[in-house]
Amino acid sequence: MRADRLRFGEVPDTEVRFAEGPGVVSGSGSERENLPDAVQADVRYDDVLVRYTLASRIDDENDDQEETEDHHDAGDG
Predict the structure, then answer these.
(1) How sure is the predictor about 59, in pLDDT bands with cuts at 50, 70 and 90?
(2) How confident is the model at residue 63 (pLDDT cuts 50, 70, 90)?
(3) Which residues on adjacent β-strands are paired with residue 49?
(4) Residue 31: beta bridge partners?
(5) pLDDT tier at 76 (50, 70, 90 boundaries)?
(6) DSSP classification of residue 8
(7) Given strand 44-58, what is the order of strands in its sheet?
(8) C-alpha angle 33-7-53 in degrees, rounded to nearest 5
(9) Cα separation of 51 and 23, whole Å?
(10) Interatomic CA distance for residues 56 and 7, integer angstroms
């Protein structure tokens, strides 16, 4: 997100949560220019840039094992 000028009427209450479970790997983060992590109400921020990244994956060890077994079976015939 890019903005020439940005002002918050009130301090936002934000939260990022991820689903939890076996094999779930998730994370997020942001890079900010001219915008602090904790913004203040009614303060003008100029020339703002925010890059937000969100990633999640499911690591299923059984899938890896099945793929390996399938490759071995294909060579046996």
Answers:
(1) confident
(2) low
(3) 2, 33
(4) 51
(5) low
(6) B
(7) 2-7, 44-58, 24-33
(8) 40
(9) 27
(10) 31
